[in-house]
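Limitations

Structures in this collection are predictions, not experimental determinations, and the ligand pose is part of the prediction. Treat each record accordingly. The example that follows, with SN-glycerol-3-phosphate as the small molecule, is included so readers can see exactly what is and is not provided: the inputs are given verbatim, and the output is the predicted complex.
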Amino acid sequence: MLVNEKKFKSILILGAGAWGTTLAKLARVNGNQVTVWSRHGSQHLGDLINNVDMVLSAVSMKGVREVASLVKSFPVSPHTIFVTATKGLDPETTCTPSQIWQTEFPNHSIVVLSGPNLSQEIAQELPAATVVASKNNMAAQVVQQVFSSGRFRVYTNPDPVGVELGGTLKNVMAIAAGICDGLNLGTNAKAALVTRGLAEIIRIGAIFGAKTETFYGLSGLGDLLATCNSPLSRNYQVGYQLARGKTLAEILANLPGTAEGVNTCYVLMHLSLEQSIPMPITQQVYRLLESLITPQQALEELMLRGMKSEYHE
Ligand SMILES: NC(=O)c1ccc[n+]([C@@H]2O[C@H](COP(=O)([O-])OP(=O)(O)OC[C@H]3O[C@@H](n4cnc5c(N)ncnc54)[C@H](O)[C@@H]3O)[C@@H](O)[C@H]2O)c1
Ligand SMILES: O=P(O)(O)OC[C@H](O)CO
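Predicted complex:
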């Protein structure tokens, strides 16, 4: 730590949902001064943002662009670090949340926080690990210091978009994994799905310039395993309940919080068609979300695709 650098940071968290409130608790445990802003609260954002060391966004994807431009309308210290914990893609531009924050704040350090982090487990104080990624390693280390504890292990990483995409793309695979379990397809099928899902994630990541090795880490494979195997995951629940015959509208109406994989799947389908990138699993999830096929038909489509080498799509 540099001389004069204060140990405890002032942090403003944007979004009082499941993840924002859990991250607030983790930062407070370490002695940091944390305020949580919600669009439904009475506190004025302009009064809270003045001179904070860190602004962490945990709003769902649909709110990121609006919140980033709202923040920009207030004076922000040039030293403020921005952290994004959202796992989604912008439907209009296909930008990741960190790309949106960087565009609004080109002279600030942007850090992505992502990993196998089911908020309910972390809120119960169960151990977990995550990744903080930035082009500015010092900024990533500041965020690492803020959140690290005996029950939350934080690693740094230099590939923010790769870390962010690991967390975003696995949500579509988690819907597929929920379908797999909802149909009782067994452990072999689930292992095949998750492994081919990772291959698909890496292929999509390449379009964004993400590093392949990032997807083998906590924010990639780690989050894929957590989300595809846990009934606590909202995305997994979407798939599971679709396989059990519920409609998407029914499922979303009763889901606690946001299942980003639904929107991400639509964005990816657009990207797949626009750039001719094969995304077989994403395509079947899309058809299911749109009620174009049954879960059984989606399974057959995947199993009977043209024969190929494991190294190809
Ligand atoms: N819950 C988790 O386990 C978890 C873990 C890691 C990452 N995430 C990611 O964090 C993000 C938030 O997830 P969550 O579980 O907290 O969802 P949530 O639905 O519980 O909360 C979303 C928050 O975003 C806010 N929001 C939405 N639109 C907004 C707008 N236009 N303006 C201002 N605020 C707006 C909502 O008011 C709410 O506070 C998602 O992208 C999710 O994928 C969640
Ligand atoms: O509940 P989900 O499906 O949004 O998953 C939560 C986290 O992303 C798991 O790391």
